Fold:
Amino acid sequence: MIEQALILVKPDGLSKSLTGNILTRLSETKLEIIAARMVRVTKKLAEEHYQHLKDKPFFPAVIKYLLGEYHDRKKVMAMIYWGEDAIKKCRQLAGATNPEEAEPTSIRGSYGRITTRGVYENVIHVSGNPADAEREIKLWFQPDEIIVDLYPTKDIVLNSVTKKTWA
Ligand code: IDP
Ligand code: MG
Structure:
């Protein structure tokens, strides 16, 4: 099935200069990158992204992790990978959630760690299933930032909206 997956290079991945290594590993999938942007993550975005973990004891720490509060790089690289079985292929290369249990040659097995605070710093996020992918892609991207029409859109007319443009 042709599907799409949201991929995030998390703050530890950026801080450790792993973007190139991660993209090289993901290129083994032969999937297409159909959107990419650097994001300064807000608390609201982080909490919405990890809403399924909100009752877990490690939730506050995972939010701080995604916000970049444990790293010198307060940013995340967000991408959409698109193609046959995109979610399965990307998750396979990413490896298990717990970096100690991840296959050693997987991305998380190679570069992840468990911190003394108990956070799994596993350098990359990959959507878990098509429904999560849709929810997450709509959180991280606007339709005109994606070069393929993934989901239905609508046109709205905005009045008196202030927008930054080049001076
Ligand atoms: P996933 O990223 O493999 O889909 P999720 O269960 O969706 O795993 O968890 C989201 C993120 O929360 C993980 O990638 C990891 O950074 C963190 N996390 C998940 N479970 C734990 C845990 O038991 N302890 C510490 N951090 C965790
Ligand atoms: Mg998940």
Observations:
- Residues 130-140 form the longest helix (11 residues).
- The mean pLDDT is 97.
